[in-house]
Specification:
There is one protein chain. By secondary structure, the chain is α/β, with parallel strands linked by helices. It has helices at residues 16-27, 70-73, 121-127, 142-155, 171-179, 195-208, 225-229, 237-248, 303-321, 329-335, 345-356; strands at 7-12, 44-45, 48-49, 53-60, 94-96, 132-135, 158-161, 183-185, 212-222, 260-267, 274-285, 289-300, 326-328, 363-364. The strands form three sheets. Strands 5-4-1-6-7-8-13-14 form an eight-stranded mixed sheet, with helices on both faces.
Length: 366
């Protein structure tokens, strides 16, 4: 759609992550170009300030959200993240999306589907001049994600895949985006300082210091709809693969499957959008002497990812401006748990800085 001073963004799934993203764009819209923003690498990234993000469209199936302005819908339905910014009326109605497998066994108990047919997604994306589409569908929405991607490819938009349905890392989808001359960044957003990044960095530290890691677990629980949805264990396969590979990729040897457990554990309603994580690592040091680490991390789950998504959106627009297509390697490695190419976090940070500067434009095109 050509280079512009704005980044027009559509959101699929108006849940807590969408709420934090929209609130964050307005919360920091007046920050100076050289200001320090907690959770954001750059107020200005590749010439795009955070306020240059404009919301163009939104899609959901919840009767509590469809038809409402996006500024109202982000605080509707079962959304329960922290409210840190009053968002002005946006003139962006939430359109009726496609359900497919987006509504699991547990979510059906609390979400009432909006009546009426699925909106014309391609027409809406084109008519609103959308540049980048962000996927915030519930974990396990395999068919729904792939259906939306077909619409996105037809409409000619870039794609940021925030959930653990494997798209950017798959040669088939890399090729599909490359054929359309479009970029994709994914898969499964890695929060600012969440369970995955902490577990990865500790794992890397022990490896670099010569400690043999023998066993480890990461147990997570929270009170948002993401955790409620993940009570349906059948929807968890890709999430467990994503979180486990994010940790094991930091090792140069294989841990037996019975010695590593990484994944969502339970739903505790009173935690709302807070997430509690317990990590334990058991290792062996010099002289075959044991070393054990135990850690508890508490975060607000959705704001923890919003700044990362803001940077991913702007990197996706930069890729479009440069005519890049397929899976964009450096931003995917830094922002996502399951990128096409896993790197250590310091390596990925250097790579994404080089990408922003125009020095690392590597892509995979299937």
């Amino acid at each position: 759609m050509g280079e512009s001073r704005k980044v027009r963004v559509a959101i699929i799934g108006v849940g807590n992550c969408a709420s934090s993203l929209v609130q964050g764009v307005f919360f920091y819209r007046h920050v100076p170009d050289d200001g320090v923003v907690p959770g954001l690498m750059h107020p200005v990234l590749g010439g795009y300030h955070i306020r240059d993000i404009e919301f163009s469209a939104a899609f959901d199936i919840d009767a509590e959200k469809v038809g409402k302005d996006l500024s109202e819908a982000i605080f509707s339905g079962p959304n329960n993240t922290v409210r840190f910014c009053e968002v002005p009326h946006l003139g962006v109605p939430v359109s009726r999306g496609m359900t497919h497998d987006g509504l699991g066994q547990y979510l059906r108990q609390v979400i009432r589907k909006a009546p009426g047919p699925t909106a014309d997604i391609v027409r809406i994306l084109k008519d609103t001049g959308t540049d980048v589409v962000v996927n915030f569908l519930p974990v396990g929405s395999e068919m729904a994600t792939k259906w939306y991607i077909e619409q996105i490819l037809e409409a000619g938009c870039g794609f940021v895949n925030g959930i653990p349905v494997f798209i950017a890392r798959e040669p088939y989808w890399q090729k599909r985006f490359a054929e359309r001359g479009l970029p994709v960044i994914g898969d499964d957003v890695k929060s600012q300082v969440g369970a995955t990044i902490v577990h990865r960095v500790l794992t890397r530290l022990l490896r670099d210091r010569g400690v043999r890691i023998d066993r480890t677990y990461q147990l997570n629980f929270g009170g948002n709809m993401d955790f409620y949805n993940m009570l349906e264990r059948e929807r968890l396969e890709s999430k467990k693969i994503s979180k486990t590979s994010a940790v094991t990729s930091q090792l140069d040897y294989e841990l037996p499957p019975e010695n590593i457990h990484v994944g969502p554990s339970d739903y505790v309603p009173w935690l709302t959008d807070r997430k509690w994580c317990y990590i334990r690592i058991e290792g062996t040091t010099f002289g075959e002497v044991p070393l054990n680490i135990e850690l508890k991390l508490e975060v607000w789950d959705s704001p923890n990812s919003a700044g990362v998504v803001i940077d991913a959106i702007r990197c996706c627009k930069l890729a479009m401006d440069r005519g890049l297509s397929g899976a964009v390697l450096a931003p995917s490695a830094y922002f996502m748990k399951s990128p096409p190419v896993q790197m250590s976090d310091d390596e990925a940070h250097r790579a994404v800085e080089a990408f922003i500067a125009g020095e690392d434009n590597r892509t995979l095109r299937g």
